[in-house]
Design a protein that fits this description.
By secondary structure, this protein is α+β, with helices and mostly antiparallel strands. The chain has three domains: 138 residues, no CATH class; 99 residues, SH3 type barrels; 134 residues, no CATH class. It has 16 helices and eight strands. Strand 3 and strand 4 form a beta hairpin.
Length: 416
């Protein structure tokens, strides 16, 4: 029937006075225009029907996955399938007498089919990715990396298929050649392969999630992870700059992930006051009486002084020299004061490690280190809490007749 219609149009053109050659070309042009117009309107009708149906289903369904399919234009790509298939079927009918041209057009249409399939797969995967990101259990996972891996394989298969269509060589022969040239391919896709391995290890070992705060000194990164892809990890620094880190660097180099701190009950404060050794001494009874005016350590001084006096009396200790027997020191009382002050501080987490420790003496002095945890883990609030604590401690030192070590600055005398 198709051939009869083709001949009918061809015969009509010849009878109209055209030569056979001109009639053949004009016949082909008319049939092509008719086929393209029919395909265009068919595509438009199918798209409108699919869009209407998909929107209705998206509104009625309980899941929002179909919403992402519509947003990523999956129904639009599906609508292209039937018109494209129709054109493939019409090629032999329209190109009678033009075998070589028909062969080229069929190859072109088949290549379009492969490209359409690739874009359809790409947008379906993108919809899956968008949908999974709405789920809390997948929100911090590097789903972009896995989608990129699937698409790399899809594009490789698609490109080989296109070459097979154009050259009319079977696809499996391309894969045979691929095995022979695997060394070259590995070199070309080295970064992608390393990125794939790194993405899998990062995900399995739960090393980094989207939203984690990481510090990576080698790449100058200090901020939140906003994206994990096959090749790179994107970090938004706290100054709002963006640092891109190779994914493989996460398993080959050392970096700091602050997630443990963020998920814990507090953020660590670890800072020391350097006490001048010259200001450290034993306390006399007059000193203790003066220190008892400090309410926070008054109970401690009363109890401790009574225990020390009882011990010294029981052992007949000669207290003409302060070094004899047991004694209180100003740095020891200050250490107790700092500990009690931290225990009473509202911004310090009492359920986590809290101590004030004396470190080994240095040429500069004796470090008295505060080791505690701020209840508020937000950076700006944490810095405020730590500054508030050390403001108070620095101001409190003179009350214990202690001094902070400072490097002497030579005075400038005279003028040139």
């Amino acid at each position: 029937m198709n051939d009869d219609f083709h001949r009918l149009l061809y015969n009509y053109l010849v009878e109209s006075g055209l030569s056979e050659t001109a009639a053949s070309y004009l016949n082909l042009a008319i049939l092509l225009v008719i086929a393209l117009v029919v395909a265009y309107f068919l595509d438009l009708i199918i798209w409108k029907v699919l869009r209407s149906v998909s929107l209705k289903l998206a509104r009625k369904s309980k899941t929002n996955f179909d919403n992402f399919l519509v947003a990523n234009r999956v129904p639009r790509y599906v609508a292209h399938i039937i018109p494209l298939s129709m054109l493939v079927e019409l090629v032999p009918f329209g190109f009678i007498g033009f075998d070589y041209a028909a062969q080229m057009v069929l190859k072109f249409l088949n290549v379009l089919f492969v490209i359409l399939a690739l874009y359809l797969v790409k947008n379906i995967f993108r919809s899956i990715n968008d949908y999974l990101k709405t789920k809390s259990r997948f929100r911090d996972k590097p789903m972009d990396s896995y989608i990129q891996v699937f698409m790399i394989f899809a594009w490789v298969v698609g490109i080989f298929t296109i070459f097979a269509i154009i050259t009319e060589i079977q696809v499996w022969k391309f894969f045979t050649a691929l095995g022979a040239g695997s060394a070259v391919i590995l070199l070309i896709f080295k970064d992608s392969i390393l990125g794939l391995v790194a993405s899998i290890q990062v995900s399995i070992n739960d090393m980094v999630r989207i939203g984690d705060w990481i510090s990576f000194d080698k790449f100058g990164a200090d901020g939140n992870v906003v994206e994990i892809t096959l090749a790179t990890v994107k970090v938004q620094n706290f100054d709002n700059t963006i640092t891109t880190i190779p994914t493989y660097a996460l398993i080959s180099d050392s970096f700091k992930n602050w997630r443990g701190m963020q998920e814990s009950g507090g953020r660590r404060i670890k800072r020391a006051l350097i006490i001048s050794q010259k200001s450290i001494r034993f306390l006399s009874d007059a000193d203790i009486e003066e220190f008892q005016k400090i309410q926070l350590i008054q109970p401690y001084l009363n109890t401790r002084s009574e225990q020390i006096n009882t011990y010294n009396t029981a052992n007949n200790i000669d207290k003409e020299l302060a070094i004899n027997g047991r004694n209180l020191t100003n740095i020891g009382v200050f250490r107790k004061y700092v500990n009690d002050y931290l225990q009473s501080h509202s911004a310090v987490n009492k359920g986590m490690t809290l101590m004030v420790r004396q470190l080994a003496p240095t040429p500069q002095g004796i470090p008295l280190e505060v080791y505690a945890f701020s209840s508020d883990k937000r950076w700006e609030n944490y810095e405020y809490v730590m500054a508030d604590i050390f403001d108070h401690l620095l101001a409190a030192l003179p009350y214990f007749q202690l001094q902070v070590y400072e490097i002497p600055v030579p005075s400038i005398s005279g003028e040139n």
